[in-house]
Model the fold of this input.
Amino acid sequence: MQRSLLSLFSVTLVTALGAQVPTLIRTINPGGGASIEQLTCAGNTAWMSANDGTHGKEPWKSDGTSAGTQLVLDIAPGSANSFPGPFVQFNGTLYFGADNGVDGEQLFSSDGTAAGTQVGLDLGQIPDLNYGYYFTEFNGRLYFQGHTDAQGRELWVTDGTPAGTFLLKDIAAGTGNGDPSGFTVFDGRLFFSAQDANGNELWATDGTVEGTQLVVNIRPASGSSSPTDLAVLGDLLFFTANDGVAGTEPWATDGTTEGTYLVKDIETGDFGSNPGGYTAYNGRVWFSALTPDGYRVWSSDGTEGGTLPLPAPSQVPSLPDAFLAHNGFLYFKAGSAGMGQELWRSDGTAAGTAPLLLTGAASSPLSATFELVGCGNRLLFRATYDETLGQQLYGIDAPVSTTELLTDLEQLNAYPNPTNGLLRCALPSGLQNSPVRLFDATGALVRDFGRAADTALQLDITDLRSGFYVLAIGSGAAVQRSVVVKE
Done:
C-alpha cells in the first residue's frame, strides 16, 4: 500500500510541477503602472518603491497577498516622490534612503508600520556628507558609498548613529572618486570594486583602515578590469572582469592575490562573453554569457572544464537575466523563439527547464523586470501581463524541488491515512519545537502549523480539498516526511 501510494504520488507531483503560472498579487496603481523598483526581501516581507497614482513613489511592503500589500508611509506628502531604497536589514530593523522633499536624502528605519517609520540617521547631521548609496550590513555595521565635496565618493561606515558614522578610507585620495560598489560579504571580509591609481579593481575590507586594501590588480598595465556581479559559491567569490587580453569573462578568487584567476575564456578574443547575474544553485554558479548563438544560460564549479552551457531544452532561453535560486529551483527571466521576456524555472537540466506562462499575457511581460525576489514560500516580481493595467506586482507560490519533496518519505507515522480531516502523528525524537508543514502535489506550502508544542500532534486539514499531500516535520537536514491522502 505504501509503495503504490508513493509511486502514485511521485507521478502526481512531477505532473503538477509544470502547471504553475504567475498570478497578480495586487493592482497597486489601477490607473496603469506601479513603477515598482528596489524590490527586496527582509525576513518574510517584500519591500519596494511603488507609485499608486496618488502618493508618488513611496515605500510599500508585501507578504505576498493582496491585503498584505500596502503603502507603509507617504514620506513626501501628496503626489511627490520620496524615491525610497535600496532596502537593507540591519540589527533587526529595515533601513532605506528617502527624501521627504524638505530635508534632502535621509536614512529611514521602519518596523513596517507608518508610526514606526522614521528617520533612523539624518545624513544631514554628518559634516560634509551629501548622500549615501549601496548600504550593506557587515559585522554589525552598515558600509556604504558616501559623497563629500572634499573626498568625492568613498567608503563610509555607520553604526546607525551620527557619532558612529565616518569615512573609513579615502581610496582615491583627494577629491577623486573611489566609487566603491558591489559590496559582497565573503570569507570574513567585505569585497567590492573600487578605483584608485591602479584603475577600477577588486578590493576588500575587514572593517579597519589598515585592512581595507586592493586584493588584486588584474589589469595593471592598461587601465581597469572593472569587476562586477560579485557572488559567493562556497569558498570562491565569482565576478566579471576584463584583463585586457581575454576580454570580459568570468573570474573567481579565494580572497588572495595568488588565488584570483580567469575561470574560462568563453568567447575568445578581446571582447569576451560579458557574463553576469551569478547565482549559486546546486553546488554551481549560474549566469548569462554571450556566445555566437547569443546570450545563453551557463554554469560553473570554478574550473575551466566545469564551466558549461545549460544543455539545450526544447525551448532555448535567450537573453537570460535576473537569476534567483529559491526553494530548490533556479528562476530567471528569458525569451525564446517567438516569445518575449517571460519567467522561467529550471532544475539545472534540459528537461527541467521551461517558461512559466500566463495564458493571454502581453508579448514580453518581464521586459522591465530587473530582479526576482523570494520571500517565504512566494516568489515576487514586477511584470506587465495586462497592458491595460501596466506594470504591477506578480508572484507564484514557489514549490520545493521534486528531489527534496520525495526524499525519505514514509518516515512519519501519520494516521488515519487516508484521512477525512483530522490527522494525528507522534512527534519523532529530537524534533521537539520543530516546524510542522504540509505541502501539496505541486510542492507548494499549503499549511504552516507552526512549531510542534506536543509530542502527540493533532492536525486539522478538514478544509483542504481531496488529494495527495506531504507532511513534513523539522527543517534543513533534520526533517522527516510522509505522504498523506485527504479523502
User: Anything to note?
Assistant: The longest strand covers residues 129-138. Helices lie at 2-17, 402-405.
